[in-house]
Each structure stands twice: as C-alpha cells, then as structure tokens.
Design a protein that fits this description.
By secondary structure, this protein is an alpha/beta fold. The protein is 41% helix and 17% strand. The protein has six helices and five strands; from the N terminus they run E-E-H-E-H-H-E-E-H-H-H. The termini are far apart.
Length: 184
C-alpha cells in the first residue's frame, strides 16, 4: 500500500510570528468530506476538522520556523525548513512514507519522493488536512502571543499586514516577534 504524506504551511505572509508547517498521513476510511483548503473553511469548521484529523490520521505532525530563522534565511527557506521538520517528525514514528505531496511550486529537500502541487491545498486531501492543522496551530499560537503582546492585536489579525497591525507597529515599534526583514 502506498503511504502518502501531505505537507502544507501557514504563515508565509504575516509580518510577525513564526511560520508553521504540518504533515499528515490519512487512512483510506477517513471522512474526506470534512476537508477543504483551510482558507475556505470557517474558524469553527477548521476547529472541528482539526479534532477529527488528529483523532483519525495515521500520523500527523506540526513544526515551526521562528521569526529569527525567517529573518536569517528568508521566508521561503524557513517554510521549507518547517516542512522538513514536520516530515522528520512523521518519519520518526517509523511509518514508511512512499511519497510526499506538498502545496505550492517548491518542495523541501526530503529523503523520499516529493512532488510540489500548485493549489494542492484545494486538490489533495492529505494537503488539505495539513493546511488545516498548520493554520489552526498558528492561529492558536498567535492568540496566545496576543496575551503577551496585547497592543499589537495578534488575536485579531494573526500577524498579517492589516491596517491595524501596521498602525500598531508605527505606534509601538516592532514587537518582539516581528519579522525584522519584512516591511511594516
């Protein structure tokens, strides 16, 4: 049986916070109808799907690249690093993945066959599941960080370049989790 691992990331576009990647292997009897590109699901539907994915997946993992790493190696390379870390966590379970499918037009350097699929988060169930786990994990972290850094409003915009976020950066300067190489 071929074992497919889907990988996607969340958080390439924000001005603050880490980038998060998730890797997911789904069983043949998974309830695929709950899946979609995470951006097309409501917060409630994402949260419901997240629980089912974590319960029913053969394996899943979430990994991160910090704002400092993003500044040091650039957002694309940091995203690839987070993806590699998420895959490594899956491989450490002993699961013999046959192939990795990654959302986008670039793929991380992995020790297994890997294919990048443009708009994969809308086409491939394993990537959809990874998209959901990455987005829910990153959003949850940004809400927690908003308690530590309330004046930046991370619970509202999750670090994305909204007018509110840019205004907070002008008023208070960059937060400790700001990506220093991004314009704000």
């Amino acid at each position: 049986m071929e074992i497919i691992c889907g990988i996607d990331e969340a958080g390439r576009g924000p001005l603050a916070g880490p980038v998060c990647a998730a890797a997911v292997v789904l069983p043949p009897d998974f309830p695929f109808g709950i899946l979609n590109d995470s951006k097309k699901l409501s917060t409630r539907k994402r949260a419901e799907a997240e629980l089912i994915i974590k319960e029913r997946a053969i394996a899943w993992a979430v990994a991160w690249a910090s704002p400092r790493e993003i500044d040091e190696i650039n957002i694309l390379q940091a995203s690839m690093r987070a993806m590699e870390r998420s895959y490594r966590r899956i491989s450490q379970t002993g699961l013999a993945v046959s192939k990795v499918l990654v959302d986008g037009n670039r793929k991380p350097d992995l020790p297994v066959e890997c294919e990048a699929i443009v708009k994969g988060d809308a086409k491939v169930f394993e990537i959809m599941a990874a998209s959901i786990l990455a987005k829910t994990a990153r959003d949850r972290l940004m809400i927690l960080l908003s308690k530590r850094y309330p004046q930046w409003g991370y619970d509202i915009h999750k670090g994305y370049p909204t007018a509110m976020h840019r205004k907070a950066c002008r008023l208070y300067g960059p937060s400790p989790i700001q990506r220093k190489t991004f314009r704000y």
